[in-house]
Amino acid sequence: MPDNVRLSAVICSSVGLVFVLSIPLVKFILKRRKSQCRGIDKVGKQLREEEFDLDEGCSFCNSGSWSCVPRRFIDRQTELIRQREKNNQLWAIETEPNLIWESHELLAEFVGAKVENIAIIDNTSTGTNVALKSQKYSPGDKILLCSFAYPAVIKQAEAVVQGNPGVELVLFEIPFPIKGEDDIINAYSKALEEHPGIKITVIDHISSDTAILFPIKALVDLCHKHDVMAVIDGAHTPGQIKLTLEDYGADYYVGNLCKWMMIPQNAAFLWVHPKHQDETKPLVTSHTVYAAHFRDRFYPPMTKDRICHILVKDAIEFYEELGGLEAIAARNAKMVTEAAAMLSEAWGTPHLEVTRDVRAPHMAVIGLPKDLTEAYVNNTPVDLYHDLMKAGVSVRVSSIGEETWCRISCHVWNDWDDFERVRDGVAMLAKNSKMNTGEKIRPPYFVPHSIMDQTK
Ligand SMILES: Cc1ncc(COP(=O)(O)O)c(C=O)c1O
Predict the structure, then answer these.
(1) What is the residue with the minimal CA distance to atom 8 of ligand 1?
(2) CB of 233 shorter than 6 A to ligand 1
(3) Contact 241/216 with Cβ under 8 angstroms?
(4) Closest to 243 (Cα-Cα) out of 116, 112, 106
(5) What is the pLDDT of residues 32-84, one digit of tens each?
(6) What's the CA gap between 257 and 240, in Å, rounded?
(7) Which atom of ligand 1 is nearest to the CA of 256?
(8) This prediction's pTM
(9) Which residue from 99, 178, 235, 298 has the highest number of Cβ atoms inside 10 Å of its Cβ?
(10) Domains contained in the chain, CATH given
(11) How many CA within 13 A on the CB side of residue 445?
(12) What digits encode the pLDDT tens for the residues 241-269?
């Protein structure tokens, strides 16, 4: 055998041997890394103590409204601000665009999207505004919303109506009890048939006060059959359910990253179907408004803090470290279900009449005790919401139908003690509020609810 052939054979077999021998080593390293993960057993009280700086006087069971941010994200945010301020021009021209591009790639994978269809933006309201306001409306066009739609989204639709004479807003009800996906689909179908001329609708993927999980794939198909554009409001979905954005066939999908993903306030995303990308414009006109790709229009070089957009990587890694989305979802769903049962029994109140298959996995809605709601009969749910917060109970309070309800959320820092404190805090406020008849100061952003209310 010639020398060069022998040498090649020796090299090949050595490489093969090294490869075979390294397999157990790689497996060992991966296993060790996994065992260093915190894992799902460590979430709850221990995680709260180790990773969060939460006010000990309060039980935070309202991640549906405001999430809690792990200390490590705040540290990273601070570190990035310091890096930016060392050389803010280099940051703006090179460092930030690279980090933000990496965020887009990681996020796209996490939510089942093609990276070219997604833009990281500041919040859900920005995304729904962009979707509604990027369209051209003609007299006779209608915008359809379910009455569970987020109040700010109703106002956004009203703003479109005000700016486009002849355009109308149609609000429709989904009656309770909701016994499954078909009840929701049938209600939408009826609304679409009864109101010809609907141009666009915003559908919650998970609704806010009612915490209902909507069958969006079926609803998008239904809308398209009626030639209606479907914008999905997914403020509550990233981190709560596994998303596969490319499969839904929606026209727009907006998701928040500051709720269940725990990023500090200022990060969300907008997914846009390729057929609408040309017409999609940011709300603030700046340098890149004519950029060829729609995402670039949202990233003009302007004075703006975008560090939260970079924390996507940290958020995804934290989820992985805690055991991954599936394990977190299963744990939170179990705990919130048990907590809702405990509160409903303690307060003698019902669950919102929604079957499990259409309930948001990490949230539950139960009635508040009668003695508490009667004490607040002269006030609004917002007043009660505020007084509960001041009593150390952070939950969402709202009116649905004639009753006042409490929405609880369970996330990774929550443990059973939080829900016991909700139970006891509510009972204590009920006891102390027997004489409550006074007018409350209401924050202006909650009133009026909508033009519809003013004209009722
Ligand atoms: C269903 C729904 N849509 C939209 C929003 C608005 O989100 P943002 O405050 O990020 O604009 C919220 C906020 O809680 C919501 O619950």
Answers:
(1) 124
(2) yes
(3) no
(4) 112
(5) 454 456 788 889 999 999 999 999 999 999 999 999 999 999 999 999 999 99
(6) 11
(7) 10
(8) 0.89
(9) 235
(10) 81-319 (3.40.640.10), 325-455 (3.90.1150.10)
(11) 2
(12) 999 999 999 999 999 999 999 999 999 99
